[in-house]
Each structure stands twice: as structure tokens, then as C-alpha cells.
Amino acid sequence: MKLPTKTFDVVIIGGGAAGLMCAAVAGKRGRSVVLLEHAEKLGKKILISGGGRCNFTNINTSPANYLSENPHFCKSALSRYTAQDFIALVEKHGIGYHEKTLGQLFCDDSSRQIVKMLESECQSAGAELRVQTSVEEVQRTAHDTFFIETSEGSLEAASLVIATGGLSIPKMGATDFGHRIAQQFGLRLTPMKPALVPITMTESAQQGFGDISGVSLDAVAECAGAAFREHILFTHRGLSGPAILQASSYLSAQGTITLNTAPTLDFTSLWQTQRSSKTTLKNVLAQHLPKRFVETFCTVYAADIADTPFSNLPLKSYTALTERLQAWEITPNGTEGYAKAEVTVGGVDTNELSSKTMESKKVRGLYFIGEVADVTGWLGGYNFQWAWASGVAAGQAV
Ligand SMILES: Cc1cc2nc3c(=O)[nH]c(=O)nc-3n(C[C@H](O)[C@H](O)[C@H](O)COP(=O)(O)OP(=O)(O)OC[C@H]3O[C@@H](n4cnc5c(N)ncnc54)[C@H](O)[C@@H]3O)c2cc1C
To answer: pLDDT by residue (tens digit) across 124-153?
Structure first.
């Protein structure tokens, strides 16, 4: 083993949301901190998040908004660093923000402000931030510290924080480094899959709906007991849109998604009010739902009655069609994968970690924070809130 070139209290690997937050908090406590990021700049996912405006938290954050093999794990960190705490930090830096929908807070201007804020917090805390630095090897020393061989020399630290994120968007720098470190030290991983991701369907399962790519509508998407009311979007290969992305996190290999494509439409009163109408079924439905969707839906499921004047419609056929509109079962054959996923479900088994500090129960001084751990938030600012909260939890402990 080579002699260490520099010793720190804390080495953090990964300069994203969780790593930067952890570095700032640990630095403020007077710990000597270095953060290593292999990409050319920090916080790349923050920069692209929320369409460039970073949905940095959600004011309704609660443990119920997270998936994990152990749903209780996230409670402690989330209760000790809340959305209000992060909002206070944003306000301290004079960053304007607004609530878009469902408690989701976005920057008025740009995600860049969040990265700048975190960098400035790290700077004032004296934490050293190194970009374009890759880690070649991590070893445990005889005196229970960590020896870290990097492209820019070797380091030694009593605490090593892994903040390398999930597997989504590899072209932006995502790696399985954190998972490999966990395995190297004997920590279990839970099964992983892309989540908050568009779903794909075979051409035959699509039944022509690929042709209405770009059409979106308000719907409820239900999967494995979880239901989300937001927009769905037809794509060439399947379905996307916030409600589908949310449902995708709950989707298993052979699973299905049930869509209510008309959640606010009262089909019983529609039947009564249109009873003597000469307008065709298709045109009546198109007064309430997107026309191209209605046309395709009727072609696939109700070709025999689509052009029938409403007054001549058999109730049985009408009921069958409307029931399907409100409980339409979709069978995906997969997802668009990590290339398009916002997050990874699964990761370092939280049973291996302290929920108070994020420290490994097996290996003293080794911490896992943010998305690398098996805690996955819903769409809507919850993933960043987990990154901040777990980063603070470790930052206060290292
Ligand atoms: C397109 C997109 C939009 C999103 N929008 C939102 C949103 O608006 N709101 C929200 O809450 N969540 C959003 N998310 C999810 C959110 O970005 C992540 O959950 C969050 O960034 C996780 O924080 P993290 O610090 O754990 O990981 P990351 O932010 O991914 O940071 C990990 C860092 O580690 C670095 N790294 C990886 N391997 C190594 C290595 N071997 N050596 C050194 N460095 C390494 C990476 O380059 C990266 O900088 C979005 C995700 C995507 C992909």
C-alpha cells in the first residue's frame, strides 16, 4: 500500500445533491472534508432536473412518498431535515421559487442557483471540492481508516461517505461504483430497476395507440395498489407522463397498470343528458376527452357503435365501453430503461445502515447517502429531499 498523500477527516465520493449537502454540513462542524467527483462539473442531475428549474423539494414530503424494502428507514432523517429546512436555505441565498403543483417547489429562474448555493455552502464550510477525480481503489487500513487511491493521488480518512447516486442516465456520469463498494465491504444490495421511467409495449399490445404519440390526458394510473392522478402521454413505444412515471416505480416484471382515462366524467349522467341526442357516441365522448384518443379507443374497443347516434345506443355496449375507459388495463413489456429513468429503485439495503447516521452497521466509518441507498421517492421533489436529508444526517455524524 502506498503512503497517503493527504489525510482528511472525511472523504465524500460523488458530487451530486447528497454529497454536496453532506460536505457542507460536515465542513461547518469543523471536519476536514474533501469531495471527489469524477465528472467535469458538480451537480449535473440538479442542473437538468425539473426541466432546468430543479423541483428541489416537496412541501408535503412524508415517509409515505418513498419506496424501500424497509419503509420505516427514511423516517428519522426526513423528520430531522425537512422541506422547510431546505426552503430556509434557499431563502437565505435569495433564490426565488414557486409551487407548481401538488406541493412541488421549483426555482423561478434556474437549477444552476441550487448548485451555486451548495457550492457556496461548501466553500464557506471549508470543504474542498475536486472535480474530474476518479477513484481507483478503496481499502480498509489496519487502523480502521480508509485508504482511497484516486487519479489525483491517494487519500486517507476516518470516514468515507458514498454519495454516487443511482444508475439512471449513465451518459451523465451515473455508475454502479457505490453498489460495488457496498459489495466489497459485504453489504447486501436490494434488487434494482429503473423507475420514474416511461413504459414500453409491444406493437400488438399498443393496438394503434402509438399513432397518437403526443396526445396527453388527465388520468389515474394504478399499479400494485398505488394510484396517481396526473397526466399520461402516449408515445411511439408506449406511455409516459407523470402518472405513468409514478406508476412505473411500482411495476414488476409481469405487472399491469390500470388507467382511469376519464376520472372526472360521470358516465351515468352523460347517458341521461344525451339520451335523445343525434350526435354519435364518438363525438359525444370527444366533447370530454381528446379527440384523437377517443377515435383510437373507439376503433379498438367499440368500432360497431362509435358512429351510432347516442339516442340509438344499446346501454349494454355503452356501459362496457365506459367501464373500460375507467379501468383500462395496460400490459407493458418493459420500460425505457436507465437511459430515460429519473431514478433507481433499490440499492444498498437499508437494514445494513443506521437510519440516524447512514453509517454501515458492519463497517465503522462507511456511510451511504442519497439514491445509492434503497430509498426511492415519488416524482415531485421527493428524491432531492431524501438526498438533502440523508446528506445532513451523515454530515452531522462523520
Ligand atoms: C432527468 C432527471 C430529472 C430529475 N428531476 C428531479 C427533480 O426535479 N426533483 C427531484 O427530487 N429529483 C429529480 N431527479 C432525481 C434526482 O436527480 C436524484 O434522485 C438525486 O440527484 C440523487 O442525489 P444523489 O446525490 O444521491 O445522486 P446524484 O445527484 O446522481 O449524484 C451522484 C454523483 O456521483 C458522481 N459519481 C458517480 N460515480 C462516481 C465515481 N465512481 N467517482 C466519483 N463520482 C461519481 C456522479 O457523477 C454524480 O455527480 C431527476 C433525475 C433525472 C435523471
So the answer is: 999 999 999 999 999 999 999 999 999 999
Q: Is the CB of 176 under 6 A from ligand 1?
A: no
Quick one: 386 and 237 in the same domain? no
Pairing between β-strand 199-200 and β-strand 238-240 as defined by DSSP bridges:
antiparallel
Cβ–Cβ contacts within 10 Å for residue 339, how many? 12
pLDDT tens by residue, 281-337: 999 999 999 999 999 999 999 999 999 999 999 999 999 999 999 999 999 999 999
Q: Is the CB of 345 under 6 A from ligand 1?
A: no
Assess if residue 297 is contained within a domain. yes
The span from the CA of 382 to the CA of 374, in Å, is 14
Atom of ligand 1 nearest to the CA of 19: 25
Alpha carbons 43 and 394: distance in angstroms, whole number: 18
CB count in 10 Å sphere of residue 79: 11
Same domain as 153, residue 69: yes
Q: Is residue 133 part of a domain?
A: yes
